[in-house]
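Hi! If you just cloned this repository, the fastest way to understand the data is to look at a raw example. We've pasted two of them here, unedited. The first protein comes first, obviously.
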Amino acid sequence: QVQVVESGGGLAQPGGSLRLSCVVSGTIFSPYIMGWYRQVPGKQRELVATITTGSSTNYADSVKGRFTISRDNSKRAVYLRMNSLKPEDTAAYYCNANFRVVTMAKNDYWGQGTQVIVSS
């Protein structure tokens, strides 16, 4: 019943910017941790950034200083502002929501992904 939906992907030029959004629905609870992960064909999914309900953040070294993660707890939403994009940022970006609620059927949910392409 819980749904995780990403949006905002698309095409950007090197040095450009994109803003990704993710909204969680189907629950009255806010995730303890929300995050963004990315994956390219043939490679494992990797962490991009995470943020807790208290706004504690964690970034991959490859995106530090360029990407900014934020969240709106009341909207159960998480955002990823991507600046100074590089071709190596091209990937499918996935939103993850992790809960600490014992009454839920499970505590980890993924979205379907949104494609980001960085190319001239």
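Ok, and the second one:
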Amino acid sequence: QVQLVESGGGLVQTGGSLRLSCAASGSIFSINTMGWYRQAPGKQRELVAALTTGGSTNYADSVKGRFTISRDNAKNTVYLQMNSLKPEDTAVYYCNAGVVTGWDLNEYDYWGQGTQVTVSS
């Protein structure tokens, strides 16, 4: 069993900042790509940022220059620093990880439960 738990969401004003955290736990051999997705009401879930173990990053165009993804491999935790927040950033943010499990050494895709980010104008 592997689970991802997000934290750090909340209500902020336009221009404010939040730092999201996602900690993975369970029978983990290693974690490959970790990332953040978001889903606003009535919209499809979209990639916000992703980070491989080797350090390669991928950001949505809408957040480039404002958001930064990082990870602490020793803690199996990924972070999303969100600066200069805009109302259009309002969404439920989901953590995602490609986990190589300890029981069979195969990679599985896991998702967190989501954390709400609301940016008021």
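That's it. A detail worth noticing about the second one: The CA atoms of residues 3 and 82 lie 23 Å apart.
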